[in-house]
Amino acid sequence: MVRSKIVIEHLNLWFDDNHVLKNINLHIPEQAVTAIMGPSGCGKSTLLRCINRMNDFIPGTRIEGHILIDGKDIYHDTINVYELRKRVGMVFQKPNPFPKSIFENVAYGLKIHGIRDRKLLHEKVRKALIDANLWDEIKNRLHEPALELSGGQQQRLCIARALAVEPEIILLDEPASALDPISTAKLEELIRKLREKYTIVIVTHNLQQAARVSDYTAFMLMGEIVEFDVTTKIFTNPKDRRTENYLMGKFG
Ligand SMILES: Nc1ncnc2c1ncn2[C@@H]1O[C@H](COP(=O)(O)OP(=O)(O)OP(=O)(O)O)[C@@H](O)[C@H]1O
Ligand SMILES: [Mg+2]
Question: What is the model's pTM?
Fold first, then answer.
C-alpha cells in the first residue's frame, strides 16, 4: 500500500463569487511524483497553492474543507504558516532567483531559520546544489550573481533554494514552461531523482511531460478532479470520457 502524504478532503475555494475549486478529494502518495494536468484556467495553480496556503492572502478568498499533511490539518488555527512553508517548498513557472549571488540564494532560507555558522552554511548550500544537479556546473562561481545563470540553471537554483531548508514536499507550478528542450530534459531528470526523498506535486499542461515525469496523474476540469490514477493507467486506459478527449487533443 502506498502511504498518502497529503490528503485533500472536500476542498472548495471561492475567489469572491467565482467557485474555483469544487469538492476536491485527492490522496497524494508519499515519495512519488504526482502531476496535476488540465486546461488553462481549470484551477491547477490554485489547488497547488492551497497545499502551502499561498492563497490565504488573496482578498476575497474563501476556503472550505481540509488538507491533511501526515494526518494534520494545515488549515487548523494552531498551524504556523511559516513552519508549514518550510515543510512545503514551492517553485514557480518563471525562475525567480533573488538579485544576489548563487551562494546567497541558497543560503537565504537557512539564514532566516537562524543558521549563522559559516561552515555549516557552506556545507548545506553545497549539499542542496548537489541534490539539485547544479553543483558541478557552478562550483567555481558561487559568488557570482545568480541572474547571470541560464534560465535552466536558474530554475535548478530555485529548486536548490527550496531543498536547502530540507522540506518534505515540493510543489512545482509549470517549472519547465520557460525553458528550452535541453534544460527541460535536465529538469525532468532532476524531478525523477528527487522523488526518492520528497513528495512532489507538479502542475503541467504539457501531457508528454506529465507522462514522462509522474507516477500518478490527476486530471482537472473546471475546478473538479475528473480522474486520478497511476500515470500509465490515465494515459493508456482512462476511465472518464473527458480525460480521453483531453488526451486526444479534443480540447484544452
Ligand atoms: N488571485 C486571483 N484572484 C482572483 N481570481 C483568480 C486568482 N487567481 C486565479 N483566479 C481565477 O481562478 C481560476 C483558476 O485559475 P488558476 O490560475 O488556478 O488556473 P490554472 O489551471 O493554473 O490555469 P493556467 O494553466 O492558465 O495556469 C481562474 O478563473 C482564474 O481567473
Ligand atoms: Mg496555472
Answer: 0.95
